[in-house]
Each structure stands twice: as structure tokens, then as C-alpha cells.
Fold this protein.
Amino acid sequence: MPAVKTGTGVTDKTIRLGVLSDLSGPFGPLGEAVVQGNQLYVDKLNAAGGVCGRKIELDVQDTGFNTDKAVQLYFKQEPSVLGLLQVVGSDITSRITPDMLQQQVMAAPTSWSSALLGNPYMVVVGATYDLDVINSLDYLVRQGKLHQGDVIGHISNDDPEYGGNALQGSQFVADKLGLTLKAIQVPSTKTDFAAEIGQLKAAGAKAVAISTYPKQTAVAVGTAAQAGLTVPFLVSNPGFDPSVLASPAGPAFQQLVLVSSSVAPFGAKLPAAEELAAAYKAKYPNGKPSMAVDYGYVVGIGYGAILKRACDEGDLTRAGVQKAFHELTGVDTGGLTAPLLFSSSNYPSSRQSFVLRPNPNTVGGLDIVDPLKESDLVRQRIG
């Protein structure tokens, strides 16, 4: 093994990466699944010899989705890790970003916000929220479900980096295709959606995009079914928790919901997904499979590829890893996503999305109804 420059978080035997996840707050099930996916890829990488003869170690911390707690954990963790394999929460990410830039800490946020683009230390894995919405609305147009002059709704939460960014996708499609957009923003604490669903029904909405937290999504879709608003509901991927399929809203989800995602679902009939599902069952026999596992695994693939390139170039310092990040142009994820393009932080690493349908009989709760595609409208959006 040739000599390699090392720095913070790297010893002769280990490479230490931090994880700031939500394991006990509103995204607890999602955070746990992403950590499991991270760990499964690290296990695979270590079994193959690691990186530069070093094993990867994860330092997992639970923020509980509390920003102040997360900031304290970050400052405790930062001096001993090379980078962060996961950060959950846009507010948390924005609070630690100034120090990350100063200390050259490369992080993979569990977020697909366009606001993260342009930061040379952010490893955004997949298409941004707005692009997912554009791709899923394009699917409805291709299916003959939407036509010029139709009304579309969008219920978004008040997080500008999630709901706000997803809404930009709906607005773009409406402007380009001559649709009328009825946009409704709701607080992240809202629990009753009768008024909002009533407004969309009265407006004659032919489809509704929804970018809220999972429990809110469940209430909104269940309310729509009861009110007779039986149109397609396009759910942004953080808004879907497969446990909803066992709830009273389950039948409504099967009937109305489509989920947009740049990451393949857990139960996908793809060799890479099937291999991951088998590894998951072996390591976490009592786990709750979801698409978040696949996302965590894909982040591992991307981050691992960056570390391997840094190793090949003989520089495992933070600066060396960041340089390697921006030299990668096509990371193969085995079809779990489109090939990831990291070479420019100004553009999403992927522009293609799956369209998925809930199915309680599929492990992980989602089937692919339309394979990875990039809409012509996405090309127009990005330019």
C-alpha cells in the first residue's frame, strides 16, 4: 500500500465518519433506516478490504431532530471524524454549514433541497425535490391524466428547503404547460386537512402534489378519499412511510398515491436492490424495510467512491477528499439511482426519478410503475 497523506479522522487502520441522524424525533423511522443502509454499505466495503487498507467506522449520534442538540453533537464530533455520512434536518444542516466550510468537512445531508447546491462540501445524492415533482407531473401528462388548462393542487409544508423547493417544481410545470396551480402552504404541526382538501375539490383539481411530513400526508390523503377527491396524489419521497399501509388510510394510498423518488424502492426487482434486501434481512431480521434503507446504502456507495478516488490520489485529508469529490462524474449505483454526477456542486447529482405506487404486499411498500426518467421539463429547468 503506497503512502497516503492523512489528517483528521484517519489513522493507519481506520477512517472515521460521523452520522448526525434523527433516531427518536419526527423522522425516527426514516433516520434509523438511513443509518442501517449506511452501515450495510460500510460492512460491504470493509469486507472487501476497506479504503486504502483502512476500515470505515461510523460514529452515530441521535439529534432527536433538535437543532441545538445537533449543533452541540456536531462540535463534539467534528474534531474526530473525516466527514459526515449523514445529517438529517435542513435547519440543522444550515446551522453547522459555516463551520463545515471553515473546517472543510464534507457532508451528505439527508435532503434533496436545491438550496444545498453550490456548496462544494455537500454531497447531495439524487434529484432535488423540485425535479422529482416535475418528473412525476410529467408522468401524469404522458398518461393522459393532465391537460392544458387543468387545475393542479400542491399542499406543501412551511419548510422552505422541503415544501418550498418541491412547490417550485409544480409552479414550473404549471407555467410551462398552461396549468393553473392552487398552492396551499401548511405549518409542519398541522393535523387537520379538511379545509385544504375542500378548497382543492372546489377548485376542480385534477391532481395534487403533496410535500409534508409522513403523518400529515396520511391524514391529507385519507381526508381526500372520504371527501371524494379521488385524483392522483403525488407524494414527495420524505412524505411516505410504509407503515401507513397498515392504517385506516392504507386503501386510499393504494388507490390515489404515487411517490416520486430518484432512489429505487426497497422491494424493487433489480439485482442491486435484491442483494441489499437480502443483506438487510440477515443483519436486521426485526427491521422495518423502507426506501430509506436504499437511500442510505446509495449514499454509502457515493461517499465510498469519493474516498476510493482520494486514496488512489494519495490524499485522505479533508482537502484531498473534497478534491476527489469534484472529480467524480459517473458513480454506478447498480440502478438504485441514475449514475451519480458529482463533478459540479451547482447541479443535482441525478435528474432522473422513479414513479412508485404503494403496495402493502411488497416488502418496503412500494412498486415501480415508471422506471428512471428525466423529463424534458427538467432539462429546461436546469438549463
Notes: Residues 5-127+267-350 form a domain with the Rossmann fold fold (CATH 3.40.50.2300). The mean pLDDT is 95. The chain has two domains: 5-127+267-350, 129-261+355-382. The two ends are 44 Å apart (CA to CA).
